[in-house]
């Protein structure tokens, strides 16, 4: 039963991640989806995988996306100022 | 001896790691010598192993020999084709390193060894993929190969086109790799195994009534991943965008061997996993590969003809030739497999040499544009001669290895498909000859610009500043490569040797031979004559051969938009599924 | 053109969806009992005194895959270093110290050592309990970056000599490879776990070379993640384009 | 229930592809690729699950006392997660360079390579 709930939550969060067109917010949704996936993996008796999904999917990857967004935005701002 | 089988993977990786660890303190020359030694040593090792590859060597990495028939370890297979591909990849890496010797743009500050290290990892990855006998292990090295290739393609970060091409390459190929992995997971679910041969047995054991939807889906997904790498239509859009913008030494590897490894993967996976009674019937595979392959050859040839960006033109000719390889592999006869192997060897030498010549133009003039370079190449006599010779090799003029391979394949394929072989090789070679005539001889009027195209002018040279003369390494390397392509066709007995070793690794284990025949020589000469005629016509009457209306929609499909390419990838999986469907429905 | 893409997407997506759904219906039922490879792996793991079977598969039975995996990480880090290098038309501008709320700062400085130790613990117990070099490495590397919140960018750069981390990354890969090559010199298979004693079940030193390979991976992942994050942070915070370019 | 996990995996892959094809921002596209990849994790782990099984770690259970889930797919998924993270990082690095060289991260505005 827990598995079904986790699966449906993952599917829903994936839809949200795709539908959210703003990359900064998408990073947050992806981070949330990473936590849900980690929970799903734990329920599926894969604590090893859950742990790394938690470290990578909900921390490292969204962090990298956020940093990229920041760089692109900062670039846009700097350009506007010089114009 | 068999314990040495994983070393062609381990040695370049170790070399790369040590280069990165010490690279910041070493002068550039030391780094390049080290790279050369490691790459050359690995090439020598693969050659030694190749000479010892009959009977087939197998090794269970981690010393997990099978108890009964089942093991928990990873199988590495060293048969003729596997070690042959590993040797080819190693030798080409060596050639690419020699080509970039000293003259390639200064490495990033503090990372003197970075470029050489990436090339070594690339070499190790290609060897690993070629030798893999385990499906998941093949995926891992497939992905390693891709990751290094993305980084190398985008290496020149100052170039707008380079980073865009690299990203397109990255997204499309990663998606293909995930499709491959989904396919592997489906196969694991059905059979509970990962070694390719064991999966094949498992499919035969669990599906005596023939394949079902699960087998079909896994076949389609696995082939999607491999065909994306092999750039079959409609998975091919990434290739011209990436190969045209990568640094020249990298182009030599991408077009010369990486794309062909995709075709090799199709051959290997079909032969070991899906060829049994529980897999995909031979007729379905033939239908799928011949249809897609012929379409690829025609599309590649047409698009190749209408390019003015010289490296992009060469990239499309790679698309056309992989199409021809896929057709040859699709007919599933040992003769055709042997022919394709020879064709592939000859093509690797010729294509790498042509890219090397294009690189020389780029570094001398800062342009690879056919229109703007019109007549400017006159001083570069050696490069011009090699371009022309390479073009004739591409057409399959005897006695090039391409000609021998093409002739053997044509004979095995037979029928109307021969026309595709002659046409595709003649058109791509004609395009290269046209470029040669215009750039190096200045023949004909300067052609007009079209509306929807990629120009090759205003490119940054890959060296530190424009070269005033072409260094010896940049002329020697293509010369050696062309000589090697010639040797494949000329050395007596080499063709038969290759054909035998491929046939032995195949399912039939049949005897095979590859000889020159009058028929094959005639067809080869015909392709070359046709190519010269096409080039002459294009130079004298540019208006007759400029893009007609019917080619415009085809060119518009190549939109440079990664979303389009992803959509085409999905269409490709659907087409592949539809082509292989009859066998599943019939069982 | 956009219309064409939507049509292609609809056709291709529908085709693939049909194919995948048909395949799903043919798959063995979820939760089934037939896992031949898995059962063999459990058996082999117990034979070699490795309590965590996943670690045994990763670092012993299929250690060759892990070699590929760590090479991917190594290549990607090298690729990012090359791709995110300072281009000719860019320069570095030290960022102004950002204002961070004091509770955040205290929290970060408090969590940092805990997270670091947790990371190291997870690495060390890889062959016994869930976790291992990979998970622990990421935790340790991310923990280090709490310094950015807790202190400022300058402090982070001081405790993070990037060159050292890059060298460590490469040396860890070399160590893994050397551990793999040693059995070849001894006349057996690459990456064979037959040279060291397997030790007592369920202790830190059990499993032969498993803990060593695990430690190499931990070292590699931790330094690789630090280098990756550092280059992205550099881009986001420090590197600027020349104005007017 | 018998096929639900597999269907969810298929759904994740297709959704990711849809997002990738229609994306107007390359950073967003890379995120969608990560969604595609999560399909492979879910499928692999679903394939290896065993009803009533426990995690394949024998530090606190006696070997043979309880059924365990398939450890092999877990190892494969671990590898897969690393691959995913590194590919994401590399692609993001390329996106940053595109932003610098083209001044945009909207794929509709990248018009240099065509024909």
UniProtKB/TrEMBL annotation, chain D:
Main location: membrane
Spans traversing the lipid bilayer: 6-22, 29-49, 72-96
UniProt entry tagged with the keyword Transmembrane helix: yes
Topology relative to the membrane: Multi-pass membrane protein
InterPro entries for this protein: CPA3_antiporter_subunitC, NUOK/Mnh_C1-like
Keyword terms of this UniProt record: Membrane, Transmembrane, Transmembrane helix
Protein location: Membrane
Family according to the record: Belongs to the CPA3 antiporters (TC 2.A.63) subunit C family.
Name this protein carries in UniProt: Sodium:proton antiporter
Lineage: Bacteria, Bacillati, Actinomycetota, Actinomycetes, Kitasatosporales
């Amino acid at each position: 039963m827990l598995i079904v709930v986790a699966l449906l939550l993952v599917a829903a969060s994936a839809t949200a991640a795709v539908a959210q067109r703003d990359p900064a917010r998408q990073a947050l949704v992806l981070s949330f989806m990473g936590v849900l996936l980690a929970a799903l993996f734990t329920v599926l008796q894969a604590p090893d995988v859950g742990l790394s999904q938690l470290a990578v999917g909900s921390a490292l990857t969204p962090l990298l996306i956020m940093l990229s967004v920041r760089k692109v935005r900062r670039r846009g701002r700097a350009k506007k100022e010089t114009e | 001896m068999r314990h040495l089988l994983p070393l062609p993977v381990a040695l370049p990786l170790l070399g790369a790691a040590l280069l990165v660890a010490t690279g910041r303190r070493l002068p550039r020359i030391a780094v390049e010598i080290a790279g050369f030694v490691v790459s050359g040593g690995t090439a020598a090792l693969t050659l030694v192993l190749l000479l010892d590859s009959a009977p087939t060597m197998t090794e269970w990495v981690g010393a997990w020999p099978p108890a009964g028939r089942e093991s928990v370890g990873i199988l590495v297979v060293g048969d003729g084709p596997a070690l042959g591909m590993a040797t080819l990849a190693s030798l080409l890496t060596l050639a690419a390193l020699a080509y970039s010797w000293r003259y390639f743009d200064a490495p990033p500050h503090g990372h003197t060894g970075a470029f050489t290290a990436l090339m070594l990892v690339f070499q190790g990855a290609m060897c690993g993929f070629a030798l893999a006998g385990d499906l998941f292990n093949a995926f891992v090295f497939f992905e390693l190969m891709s990751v290094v290739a993305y980084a190398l393609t985008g290496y020149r970060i100052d170039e707008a086109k380079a980073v865009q091409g690299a990203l397109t390459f990255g997204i499309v190929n990663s998606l293909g790799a995930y499709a491959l992995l989904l396919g592997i997971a489906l196969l694991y679910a059905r059979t509970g195994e990962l070694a390719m041969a064991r999966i094949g047995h498992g499919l035969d054991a669990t599906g005596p009534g023939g394949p079902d939807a699960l087998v079909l889906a896994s076949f389609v997904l696995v082939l999607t991943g491999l065909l994306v790498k092999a750039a079959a239509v409609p998975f091919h859009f990434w290739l011209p965008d990436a190969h045209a913008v990568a640094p020249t030494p990298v182009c030599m590897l991408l077009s010369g061997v990486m794309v062909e490894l995709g075709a090799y993967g199709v051959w290997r996976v079909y032969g070991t996993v899906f060829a049994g009674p529980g897999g995909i019937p031979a007729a379905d595979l033939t239908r799928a590969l011949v249809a897609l392959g012929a379409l690829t050859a025609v599309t590649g040839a047409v698009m190749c003809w209408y390019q003015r960006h010289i490296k992009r033109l060469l990239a499309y000719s790679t698309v056309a030739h992989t199409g021809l390889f896929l057709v040859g592999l699709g007919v599933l006869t040992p003769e055709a497999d042997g022919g394709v192997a020879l064709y592939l060897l000859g093509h690797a030498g010729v294509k790498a040499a042509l890219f090397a010549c294009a690189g020389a133009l780029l570094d001398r003039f800062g342009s690879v544009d056919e229109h703007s370079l019109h007549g400017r190449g006159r001083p570069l006599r050696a490069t011009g001669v090699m371009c022309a010779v390479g073009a004739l090799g591409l057409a399959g003029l005897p006695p090039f290895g391409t000609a021998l391979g093409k002739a053997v394949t044509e004979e095995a394929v037979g029928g109307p498909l021969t026309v595709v072989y002659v046409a595709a090789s003649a058109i791509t070679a004609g395009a290269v000859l046209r470029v040669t005539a215009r750039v190096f001889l200045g023949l004909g009027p300067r052609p007009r610009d079209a509306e929807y195209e990629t120009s090759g002018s205003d490119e940054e040279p890959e060296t530190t500043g424009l070269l005033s003369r072409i260094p010896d390494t940049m002329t020697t390397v293509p010369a050696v490569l062309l000589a090697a392509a010639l040797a494949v066709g000329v050395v007596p007995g080499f063709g038969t040797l290759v054909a035998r070793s491929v046939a032995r690794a195949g399912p039939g284990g049949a005897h095979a031979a590859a000889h020159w025949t009058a028929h094959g020589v005639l067809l080869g000469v015909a392709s070359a004559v046709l190519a010269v005629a096409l080039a002459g016509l294009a130079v004298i009457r540019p208006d007759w051969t400029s893009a007609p209306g019917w080619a415009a929609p085809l060119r518009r499909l190549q939109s440079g938009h990664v979303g389009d390419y992803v959509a085409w990838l999905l269409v490709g999986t659907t087409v592949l599924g539809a082509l292989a469907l009859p066998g599943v429905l019939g069982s | 053109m956009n219309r064409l893409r939507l049509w292609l997407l609809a056709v291709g997506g529908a085709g693939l969806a049909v194919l995948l759904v048909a395949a799903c219906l043919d798959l063995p039922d979820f939760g089934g009992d037939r896992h031949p490879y898995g059962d063999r792996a459990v058996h082999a793991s117990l034979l070699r005194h490795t309590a965590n079977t996943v670690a045994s598969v990763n670092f012993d039975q299929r250690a060759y895959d892990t070699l590929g995996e760590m090479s991917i990480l190594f290549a990607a880090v090298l690729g990012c270093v090359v791709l995110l290098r300072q281009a000719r038309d860019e320069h570095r501008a030290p960022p102004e110290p950002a204002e961070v709320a004091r509770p955040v700062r205290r929290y970060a400085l408090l969590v940092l050592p805990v997270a670091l130790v947790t990371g190291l613990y997870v690495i060390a117990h890889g062959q016994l309990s869930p976790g291992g070099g990979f998970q622990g490495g990421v935790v340790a590397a991310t923990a280090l970056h709490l310094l950015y919140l807790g202190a400022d960018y300058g402090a982070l750069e001081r405790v993070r000599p990037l060159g050292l981390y890059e060298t460590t990354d490469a040396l860890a890969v070399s160590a893994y490879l050397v551990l793999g090559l040693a059995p070849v010199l001894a006349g057996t298979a690459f990456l064979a776990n037959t040279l060291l004693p397997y030790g007592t079940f369920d202790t830190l030193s059990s499993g032969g070379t498993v803990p060593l390979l695990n430690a190499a991976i931990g070292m590699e992942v931790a330094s690789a993640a630090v280098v990756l994050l550092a280059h992205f942070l550099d881009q986001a915070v420090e590197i600027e384009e020349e104005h007017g370019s | 229930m018998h096929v639900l996990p597999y269907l969810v995996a298929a759904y994740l892959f297709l959704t990711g592809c849809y997002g990738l094809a229609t994306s107007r921002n390359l950073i967003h596209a890379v995120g969608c690729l990560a969604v595609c990849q999560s399909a492979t994790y879910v499928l692999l782990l679903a394939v290896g699950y065993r009803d009533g099984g426990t995690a394949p770690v024998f530090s606190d259970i006696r070997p043979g006392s309880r059924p365990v889930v398939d450890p092999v797919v877990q190892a494969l998924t671990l590898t897969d997660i690393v691959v995913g993270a590194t590919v994401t990082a590399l692609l993001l690095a390329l996106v940053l360079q595109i932003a610098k060289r083209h001044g945009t991260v909207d794929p509709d505005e990248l018009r240099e390579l065509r024909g």
